[in-house]
Design a protein that fits this description.
By secondary structure, the protein is α+β, with helices and mostly antiparallel strands. The protein has a single domain (2-212), classed as outer membrane lipoprotein receptor (LolB), chain A (Clam), CATH 2.50.20. The protein has helices at residues 2-13, 30-41, 117-121, 124-127, and strands spanning 46-57, 63-72, 76-81, 85-88, 92-97, 102-107, 128-138, 141-150, 156-164, 170-177, 180-191, 209-212. It has a twelve-stranded mixed β-sheet. Strand 1 and strand 2 (63-72) form a beta hairpin.
Length: 214
Amino acid sequence: MTRFILSKLLIFTLFLISLPLFSQDDNITAQEIIQNVQSAYKDISDAKASYSQTVKFNKSKAQSSSGTLYIKKENKYRIETASQTIVTDGSTSWSYTPSKKQVVIDYYKETGNSFSPNKYLFQYPENFYSDLSGTEKLNGKDVYVLALKPRESGYVKSAKLWVGKDDWIIKKIYIVTDESSSTYSIKNIQTNTGVANSKFTFTPPEGTEVIDMR
């Protein structure tokens, strides 16, 4: 269960990509910021980025990791870390753990309680409340801080986004669920490079134990 929860959270981070410039306004609202982000994402077909994450599950120590993410519309993604590779082509999902020499295969699932980028980026106005909490300095840059809260109860309880004032890139995300709190930072973002479809399927190495949940 945990591997799919993490995959839902990680996939959102890959949508945090370079955006075109818009005019700045000291009276800008949270809704205007989100609309600018949404309009820019419509022109993105694929992306690659490196990321770092810190996840703290209830009553346990925080765990940190880093890796590479690939994404392609619609619902295709690949997450590579030292300990795990998670892949989906939008129909089937593979979760491969090298240390166990094991891969778990299942149908790709999009449920009402899952953390979906579409909910935040395209259905956001109907599904979430937003507030502009203020501005901060993050790594020497001015950023807007947005607080997000779902209108209906579900998997994600709240989130915060740090959005660059000068380029509309979301620099950081903080997500709270019933099970965990997670922080993600994104860098080295490349968009529309023509990521091959082969990145979004997975062939287990010879000798791998295959657990098929379909």
